[in-house]
């Protein structure tokens, strides 16, 4: 692979922003991806709409927003795995995600089959 770690991280951020807009109908305000050993961490800022923020004022609404948002992302997991594979050449062996209803950030963690950081160094 002749791309730098920073170039691959930027490519992942750009691809996930595009995926969000095309699959979920709206994208985040900013995305930052970091490759660490055999994992890719992605932080997406500005995920929640104003209506979702107001729903999150009570526990029931908060849980509802979290559940719905996580279900939407999980329903696109095969496409997400394909995006990561296309960019990195690495198979995603597990995927984790959660959203902060306080900050409106989503974190995604892709666990890969190999140490991508070593391959890029």
From TrEMBL:
Q: What InterPro entries does its record include?
A: MpsC
> Pfam family of this protein, just one?
MpsC
Residues forming the Na+-translocating membrane potential-generating system MpsC domain are: 5-113
Q: From the Swiss-Prot or TrEMBL record, give the protein name.
A: DUF2294 domain-containing protein
Organism of provenance: Bacillus salipaludis
């Amino acid at each position: 692979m002749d791309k730098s770690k920073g170039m691959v991280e930027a490519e992942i951020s750009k691809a996930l922003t595009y995926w969000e807009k095309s699959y979920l109908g709206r994208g985040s305000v900013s995305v930052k991806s970091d490759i660490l050993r055999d994992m890719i961490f992605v932080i997406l800022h500005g995920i929640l709409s104003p209506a979702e923020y107001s729903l999150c004022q009570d526990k029931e609404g908060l849980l509802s927003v979290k559940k719905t948002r996580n279900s939407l992302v999980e329903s696109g997991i095969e496409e997400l795995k394909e995006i990561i594979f296309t960019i990195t050449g690495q198979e995603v062996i597990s995927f984790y995600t959660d959203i902060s209803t306080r900050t409106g950030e989503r974190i995604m963690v892709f666990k890969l089959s190999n140490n991508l950081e070593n391959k890029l160094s």
